[in-house]
Design goal:
47 strands; Transferase(Phosphotransferase), domain 1; alpha+beta; 13 helices; 2 domains
Length: 1019
């Protein structure tokens, strides 16, 4: 921590800057005070040179939104994300130490602390993996130790990056700091890769060293891929689990949920009660807090002098979570402080370009197409480097091997430039489409892209801010080459963000107890003097050189390690995206949320029940036989199972038609499954990429990215088609957002288009100002039976670029109660609402806004549901509260379980079924708020709140999450059975990490997990 420099900003929005907390290769973090509340905060600000790169901004903002969606538990909730002017995030200050510094202070952690650390991180990974994504954000600088438990501060591969650098031509060069056996073999990282890195972190925390240290540096990659880890010093009770995480075959590694359960069955929070840090670490955390809280506003701050605008700041960076760190959630908040005057890393002179796509930029026009450099880590108290890049306390002639060891497995480089995609893929960021290798600048993979973040409904999956009906979610990068270049036009600085977070040596706190980090054996691939390294003291795994390296002296090329061995470079995948959260549950009202991969039409159990008079053509298949009786506690035998063909893309949405068909839409087509037999009866490519399948009289309505379609349920024939260009002629290039809800024949959705506003005629002698591009947004009501627009009303455009995401939380005779998705709110809107969520009332007949209200202190992303009786139910803090919708008067409150928050409840007549992130479900009387029962699904840890569905009879309540489906008696909470599918049985098959979803139909419930469907009989 150090005093502010002259060029540093003194204000970020409502925050007054107090001091520099730490800095990184691409980030500077400041300690600040919230002028509204007086509370301390940490500001992570983007270095202007990087913030000017569109890919960086998109990644930064994308990972910031991921932090918002994961907020709670072991992720500190963001307070603000600034997109105008200087790019930054603000988070609450939580005293914490990075794992690397903690090991340097007190040595290896005791077994109980190891269990809490591993369980806490595994609980977060379980939530990420539930959406089919990998985190790739674990590093010794991104995992922090706070008084009450661990914290994670990086939410994408850039968070654990070793460095990031803006290059000519719009390139963003990023070096990753880890490697796994599958990546050594040239395969893509997946959820299992996170478990390998978690195993490395736990082994490091248990021993103070890496399990892959012995042997020549040039053989590091071979050891990671082939050698067995050395775990003799790991506590015996944990040795088997950590060894499982470090299995060479990803399929043999345990899931994150399994790790969390084995380490702490009662959850990390439960095990950590009463304190968990060793005495020396607890004292160090308290010491840090005392120093930070003693900070005063600098004399030249805006409170005592003229304000220095934030956008006039000097070099500041994207994020870090460094030694002496703070649990500051945000994009790429991992890492350690780094001097700002370090000499840039040289580009490899001998880089070998991959096969260029048609639009690839020539290698000589895009420097640094490949190559990587391992990043050495300095002790927590290391002084800043000299401008030459040579550590101040290291003689210039000192060999690189003398530097503190870097236990990271490898460093990867991803470069981005306009129109490029070295390797086997191509990328076009201006169009928003992508196929191929690691795409830092890519956040949207829809048919017509538009560079939008893919997330969903509050958790991990599809982005509620998407402006498309279709959202296929992140596509894993595919490449046989480690370095990718992506088109980044300077004139299109799109905002949904990427945040590389290269860390660097931590700035020392004010003088305190003497500390020294343990010196690990020299790791392979340490950078030579002058190389820009970024992470803080001892990290948990070694940088890995490719097999066959020469081991000769360093030539200074970026592509070589300190001993001349070529470094492994890896592509960055898209940012992880969160799974569908909950939605309103009214029988005739659906909140549509297509999951990024394999989700249902509904979130939270509300179903798209399709009605109609047309019969379905009979098939030759006989109805499935009645299931046999099962033992108590076991799920009933399914009436049938259906596997979506592996040759086709994963399902996007799933809905029911007249209790006869299961309609599945995918990237390539729509298809229908007979609900009697589980056999597919038709498929239709015309309806590919559909967002939803709804009842439209006798027809099946599907909304695609470019048109509305009406299909015959008998054979899937397209009966009617309305292209947006034809149906909304006064709104050229209309982009239709996700459906907000449906009741009977009427659907509600948002849409937007861009118009050119002519600049006014200049005054005499003045220059003509340029025209402006302005986004105009609307909220629509559309009759899908009459195929006509009912009304539209202008609404704020929300966070650019895109269409605001709306959700109908209640439908009443006179109005609709609607909430905007938090991720589509602008920072100004959040500030104006004082951090509270707002519900708007729209007139049913005209669409006119009647009023806007806030309910208690419910946050913008809090779970909300409403009934026709004018009662609204909202999660407020850890409690569930009931309000009069028209007056916002509170009626009753139900206390939640410790450390948890409520998910979206399910209305069922006089009852309200509740769900919590602590995996508790229950039933409450809607009138009085009296809790009737509350039971656990017995899924360990704190994750996403289970999604709820009620059987057709109303007797069985089904709770679905990333781990299982649990059936309860709706009347008294008796746990009836649990179900988990086996996943892909083929030993070489992919690991399935999708969440479970349920649709109730008659006496059955359809359970979906990615491509697999099961029809279970239920009461």
């Amino acid at each position: 921590m150090e005093a502010l420099r002259r060029e540093d900003p003194r204000r970020f929005g409502r925050f007054t800057v107090l001091a520099r907390f730490r800095q990184a290769a691409s980030a500077v973090q400041f300690v600040a005070r919230d002028t509204a509340t007086g509370e301390l905060a940490v500001i992570t600000a983007a270095r202007p040179a990087l913030a000017a790169v569109p890919a960086f901004r998109r990644r930064f903002q994308s990972e910031a939104r991921t932090a918002e969606r994961l907020a709670g538990g072991w992720v500190t909730p963001p307070l603000e994300t600034g997109e105008d002017g200087l790019l930054h995030t603000a988070t609450e200050y939580v005293p914490a130490l990075p794992l690397a510094e903690a090991i340097g202070i007190a040595g290896p952690l005791p077994e109980r602390a190891l269990r809490i650390l591993g369980a806490g991180i595994a609980e977060i990974l379980s939530r990420v993996h539930a959406g089919g994504s990998a985190l790739q954000g674990l590093a010794p600088g991104t995992v922090l130790l706070a008084e009450d438990g661990p914290r994670l501060t990086a939410f994408g591969p850039l968070g654990a990056a070793a460095s990031a650098e803006a290059k000519p031509g719009g390139q963003l060069s990023v070096r990753l700091g880890y490697l796994t056996p599958e990546q050594v073999a040239g395969k893509e990282a997946g959820a299992a890769s996170d478990l390998f890195v978690l195993g490395l972190l736990l082994a490091y925390a248990a021993t103070g060293t890496t399990p892959f240290t012995e042997g020549p540096p040039e053989e590091a990659a071979r050891r990671i891929a082939e050698a067995e880890p050395e775990l003799d010093a790991v506590p015996a009770e944990l040795r088997g689990l950590i060894a499982g995480c470090l299995a060479k075959d990803p399929a043999e590694r345990p899931t994150a949920g399994t790790v969390a359960a084995e380490l702490a069955l009662e959850g990390a929070a439960g095990l950590a009660r009463g304190g968990w840090l060793p005495e020396r670490l607890a004292a160090a955390v308290a010491d840090q807090e005392a120093r930070v809280r003693a900070l005063e506003v600098p004399k030249d701050s805006p409170e005592e002098a003229e304000e220095a605008p934030a956008d006039a700041a000097g070099p500041v960076g994207a994020s870090a979570a460094a030694a002496g760190g703070v649990a500051a959630a945000g994009p790429g908040t991992g890492g350690t402080a780094a001097p700002e005057d370090v000499r840039p890393v040289k580009e490899p002179e001998d880089a070998v370009p991959g096969e260029e796509p048609v639009d690839a930029v020539p290698e000589d026009a895009v420097p640094g197409a490949s190559g990587g450099v391992a990043a050495a880590e300095a002790p927590a108290d290391a002084p800043a480097e000299e401008p030459t890049g040579t550590p101040a306390d290291t003689p210039p002639e000192a060999p690189a091997a003398q530097a503190p060891a870097d236990p990271r497995a490898a460093v990867a480089t991803t470069s981005h430039a306009h129109g490029t995609g070295t390797g086997t893929g191509t990328a076009d960021n201006s169009a928003g489409s992508h196929t191929g290798t690691g795409d830092v600048g890519k956040t949207d993979h829809t048919a017509n892209g538009n560079n939008r973040d893919t997330s969903t409904n509050g958790d991990i999956g599809e982005d509620p801010g998407t402006t498309r009906f279709l959202n296929t979610g992140p596509k894993p990068p595919q490449s046989d080459r480690a370095t990718t270049q992506l088109a980044l036009p300077h004139e299109l600085p799109r905002s949904p963000g990427q945040a590389p977070v290269p860390p660097h040596t931590p700035a020392a706190l004010p003088p305190g107890p003497a500390r020294s980090a343990p010196q690990l054996p020299a790791s392979p691939g340490l950078p030579a003097p002058g190389h820009h390294h970024t992470h803080g003291s001892p990290a948990p795994y070694p940088a890995a050189a490719l097999p066959g390296s020469t081991g000769q002296g360093n030539s200074g090329n970026q592509g070589n390690g300190s001993n001349g061995s070529p470094m492994v470079t890896l592509p960055l995948p898209p940012a992880p995206t969160p799974p569908p959260g909950s939605a309103t549950s009214r029988r005739t009202l659906i909140a549509i949320a297509a999951a990024a991969v394999g989700g249902l039409v509904v979130g939270g159990g509300a179903v798209a029940a399709i009605g109609g008079g047309e019969s379905v053509a009979a098939t030759d298949d006989k109805p499935a036989p009645k299931p046999r009786r099962t033992l108590p506690g076991q799920p009933p035998e399914p009436r049938w199972t259906y596997s979506h063909p592996a040759s086709e893309s994963s399902p996007l949405t799933t809905a029911l038609w007249q209790d006869r068909l299961l309609v599945v839409t995918s990237e390539s087509q729509a298809s229908a499954v007979d609900l009697r037999t589980g056999k597919r009866v038709w498929q239709r490519a015309d309806a590919a990429k559909g967002q939803a399948a709804l009842a439209a009289g006798d027809l099946c309505f599907v909304a695609s990215p470019t048109e509305f379609l009406w299909l015959a349920p008998k054979d899937g024939t397209v009966v009617h088609r309305v292209r947006y260009a034809d149906g909304f002629t006064d709104l050229p290039d209309l982009q239709v957002g996700r459906l907000a809800g449906q009741s009977g024949p009427v659907i509600w959705f948002t849409g937007s288009h861009t118009v050119t506003v002519k600049a006014p005629k200049p005054k005499k002698g003045k220059k003509q100002a340029p025209d402006k591009q302005v986004v105009q947004a609307y909220f629509f009501a559309y009759d899908i039976v009459r195929r006509t627009e009912v009304w539209r009303t202008p609404v704020p455009a929300g966070r650019a670029p895109g269409t605001p995401g709306y959700r109908v939380v209640a439908e009443r005779s006179a109005d609709l109660l609607v909430r905007q998705d938090a991720v589509t709110l602008t920072a100004a809107e959040v500030k104006a609402a004082k951090g509270k969520g707002t519900i708007r009332s729209f007139d049913q007949q005209t669409g006119k806004v009647r009023w806007a209200k806030q309910y208690g202190t419910a946050a913008p992303d809090a779970a909300v549901a409403g009934g026709e009786d004018g009662t609204l139910y909202a999660a407020v803090g850890a409690d569930l509260q009931s309000f009069e919708a028209d007056t916002a008067k509170p009626l009753w409150r139900v206390a939640g379980t410790a450390g948890s928050v409520f998910g979206t409840p399910l209305l069922a007549g006089p009852l309200l079924h509740t769900t919590e992130r602590s995996q508790q479900v229950g039933a409450v009387e809607r009138e009085s708020g009296r809790l009737l029962w509350r039971r656990s699904t017995e899924v360990p840890g704190i994750g996403n709140a289970p999604s709820l569905a009620l059987s057709g009879s109303g007797k069985t309540l089904l709770a679905s999450d990333a781990t299982q489906v649990t059936a309860f008696s709706a009347a008294d909470g008796e746990r009836l059975w649990k179900f988990q599918d086996i996943g892909v049985a083929d030993p070489k098959g992919a690991t399935v990490s999708a969440s479970y979803r349920t649709l109730a139909v008659g006496g059955n419930v359809i359970v979906q997990r990615d491509r697999s469907f099961y029809a279970f009989p239920v009461a």
